[in-house]
Recover the amino acids of this structure.
């Protein structure tokens, strides 16, 4: 059972991290953690699907659809980067209070572990693909897509994890 003192602390924490009802940026985007979570999931999945369509599509219209998905993923990151959740995940430590620092540390640690697993799996695939003769990235377009996808995941994954945790706090 939650005591009155805890609920007041939770309410103060919600207001501090931008879960107030009028949490908008200078551009007018609503940056509620649930919307940031949805945009983060969309940006990461749209980029991944778009890159795969561009890479392996047998017809031109699928490659164009992949390019449109990549562009929409890039546009979906604009409200994310202007949100309070992103500022918690990326601001200097001096600008954050203790509660925000703890949340930031947990989200960055989880994101780092996730990215490390993906990199290890990718390196393992490259080693096996080289021996077995599977597809390997061999042109600049392939490596460019991997680079920008990796950058997107590194920048957005901590925000996704943090907004997921803020969504859980909101549910309490």
């Amino acid at each position: 059972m939650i005591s009155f003192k805890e609920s007041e602390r939770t309410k103060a924490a919600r207001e501090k991290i931008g879960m107030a009802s009028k949490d908008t940026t200078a551009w007018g985007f609503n940056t509620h953690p649930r919307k940031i979570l949805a945009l983060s999931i969309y940006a990461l999945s749209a980029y991944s699907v778009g890159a795969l369509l561009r890479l392996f599509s047998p017809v031109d219209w699928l490659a164009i659809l992949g390019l449109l998905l990549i562009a929409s993923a890039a546009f979906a990151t604009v409200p994310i980067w202007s949100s309070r959740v992103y500022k918690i995940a990326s601001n200097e430590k001096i600008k954050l209070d203790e509660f925000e620092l703890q949340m930031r540390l947990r989200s960055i640690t989880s994101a780092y572990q996730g990215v490390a697993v993906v990199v290890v799996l990718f390196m393992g695939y490259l080693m096996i693909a080289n021996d077995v003769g599977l597809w390997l990235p061999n042109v600049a377009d392939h490596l460019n897509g991997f680079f920008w996808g990796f950058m997107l995941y590194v920048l957005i994954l901590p925000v996704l994890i943090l907004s997921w945790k803020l969504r859980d706090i909101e549910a309490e």
